Amino acid sequence: MTAMGTTRVTRVRVAAAAVTLAEAGIESPRVDAELLAAHVLGIPRTRLVLAPDLDDEASRRLDELVARRAAREPLQHLVGSAVLGPVSVAVGAGVFVPRPETELLLTEGVANLRGAAAPVVVDLCTGSGALALALAVARPDAEVWAVEADPTALTWADRNLAGSGVHLVEGDVTAPGTLAELDGTVDLLVANPPYVPAGTPVSAEVARDPARAVFAGVDGLDVIRPLAATAARLVRPGGRVAVEHDESHAPAVLAVLEGAGFTDLATRVDLAGRPRVAVGIRA
Questions:
Q1: 193/259 Cα distance (integer angstroms)
Q2: Would the pTM of this model clear 0.85, i.e. be above it?
Q3: Burial per residue of 125-145, b for 16 or more beta-carbon CB atoms within 10 angstroms, e otherwise
Q4: CB atoms within 10 A of CB 73
Q5: What's the whole-number average pLDDT of the chain?
Q6: Residues near 99 by Cβ (< 8 Å), separated by ≥ 6?
Q7: How far, in Å, CA of 280 to CA of 129, rounded?
Q8: Rounded distance, CA 262 to CA 255, Å?
Q9: What DSSP character marks residue 97?
Q10: Cα dist. 12→20, 53, 66, 148, 258 in Å?
Q11: How many angstroms separate the CA atoms of 14 and 3, rounded?
Q12: End-to-end CA distance of the chain
């Protein structure tokens, strides 16, 4: 078969996979199908147009992955990685999968570091370590600390942060003594804590994440409230904080940060216009 013919066959296989995923209710069936096919072939998605046909083993693997995705297993679990800004991290069962909403938190963090020389940065509730790693890549001169309490998530973070220079610490972000050695020295503190109110319906994919990384009490603020006090203790006067939250939480999170001693408070919205990140300056 000619190269043109094999490429055409691959396109047909991807199109059929996309139909299967669409029928299963996947929001981005074509993209997911292409990413799964690229994963099976071991090539970037952008190279699919030049890809050879899948052999029998590759076809079997693609069919298996498509069936698992149709059953709403997260795409990132199937390909073994998730992307956040400039980095890709390993993810799987037992760790929260970074999602596009956190790109806004990363953007805010990088913007808030402009003009700061050799800044000290802390990422609370680091999970997979994706945000800490992305900040370290964006600012190689920064001293970046990442904090996580869950043992399974720590294993993933340790794997992802190995060799990056990021300091990974096992600790409870709501505890009074966490990172006490950094009190009053932090230039930027970011956090993507659990914030979904208990009992809230979530997508099948989010339901695969550890519940402790998703839900936070009746109103979803059980972690953010004490986390704000930790942030106030760590951040230097004039330093900045940025916290991701549920779109329904904007006023409540700003009030919590104000009560903890932050000023110049504001809410940043994502590309869909939803309030997602609270920012402020330590008084």
A1: 18
A2: yes
A3: bbbbbbbbbbbbbbbeebbbb
A4: 16
A5: 94
A6: none
A7: 23
A8: 9
A9: P
A10: 13, 10, 14, 44, 56
A11: 17
A12: 69
Q: What are phi and psi of 273, to 5 degrees?
A: 80, 15
Q: How far apart are CA 243 and CA 241, in angstroms?
A: 7
- Whether residue 146 is predicted with pLDDT greater than 80 in this model: the reply is yes
187-208 residue pLDDT tens: 999 999 999 999 999 999 999 9
**Crossing angle between the packed helical segments 29-41 and 3-23, to the nearest 10 degrees:** 130
Q: What confidence score (pLDDT) does residue 8 get?
A: 57
For residue 258, give the DSSP letter: H
What share of the chain has pLDDT > 70, as a percent? 97
Strand 186-191 relative to strand 120-124: parallel, antiparallel, unpaired?
parallel
The pLDDT tens digits of the residues spanning 19-42 come to 999 999 999 999 999 999 999 999
The Cα–Cα gap between 47 and 39 comes to 11
More confident of the two residues 16 and 50? 16
The DSSP line for 103-153 is HHHHHHHHHHTTT-SS-EEEEES-TTSHHHHHHHHH-TTSEEEEEE--HHH
